[in-house]
Model the fold of this input.
Amino acid sequence: MTWVALTVAAYLLGSIPFGLLIARAHGVDLRQVGSGNIGATNVSRALGKPWAVVCFVLDCLKGVVPMLVAGMLIDQTYDGITVGVLWRWLAVGCAAIVGHVFPVYLKFKGGKGVATSLGVAVGLYPYMTQPGLVILLIWLGAMLMWRYVSLASLLAAVSFPVVLAAMICTRPDWHFAVLWPLLIVASAIAVLVVVRHVENIKRLLEGSESKAFQK
Done:
């Protein structure tokens, strides 16, 4: 029952539309600006980069906080990690991501899940934290090179299961027999991010996608 309650709480936390609330506090309806998305990229269009950073951090925390709470519960209850425990931990993170993408407060029309997915990865220490930091570097590198938020997010998402698999295979203290659920969830996150960026992919192919940092 504790895990069920934590999973439900993670979904409700993930459903909080911080971008929409930040914009509304400034008298702006974010759904009527730019792409209409409630994430940090659209907040940047509406309010500028500082508020976009605030939105990004808050959306990340929607993933980090539930995972840290779940991690403390594991440390207090279990001696080591097992496949069953790992699935419960991942269920909490998936609930937060689903809450962001399909928020109950907005009739299930939410964001694209990138920031919250990063938060989930950072919060599942150490098995997803270290791959998550590598993915963050990939995202930053792609942003500096091409200045497309969507392209950087897509490259980071697709790279996530690859980097995770490489770490599981190369680290002697990480065992595939226990950690294989991570690869399934990382792959599912990658698919979700790609699906949520279908319109962005079309604009990238057409050459009409907006770049970041443009006035």
